[in-house]
Amino acid sequence: METNINICPKVAKCPIFQEGVLINKLTGESYKNLYCTRERHAECKRFIASKQCTKPIPVNVLPNSFLSIEEIVKRVNEGYWDKKK
Ligand code: SF4
Fold it and tell me: Residue-wise pLDDT tens for the chain (85 aa)?
């Protein structure tokens, strides 16, 4: 990966970037290319919501999630996905 000042500051710990395997490997790579390594990371719902979450955001919340930022934050902070384990 080329050095890019627009890379998301979350890449070191974000499972989307680190694991990169969601529906399939190609999908993971697409998210990396569309969000993580571009200025567009600022539009990633994981990135935006992470600023308001008190817990890590689960891997099933995608950069272009259909959920609103408010809903993601609410669900993460209330442990919605913790119950699903
Ligand atoms: S998925 Fe979002 S939060 Fe995670 S590294 Fe990519 S842009 Fe950053």
Answer: 455 678 999 999 998 888 766 667 777 888 999 999 999 999 999 999 999 999 999 988 999 999 999 999 999 999 998 876 5
Q: Which atom of ligand 1 is nearest to the CA of 9?
A: 8
Report the nearest-CA residue for atom 3 of ligand 1: 47
11 Cβ closer than 6 Å to some ligand 1 atom: yes
Residue 36 beta carbon below 6 angstroms from any ligand 1 atom: yes
CA distances to 3, 9, 22, 50 from 70, rounded to whole Å, are: 32, 21, 23, 11
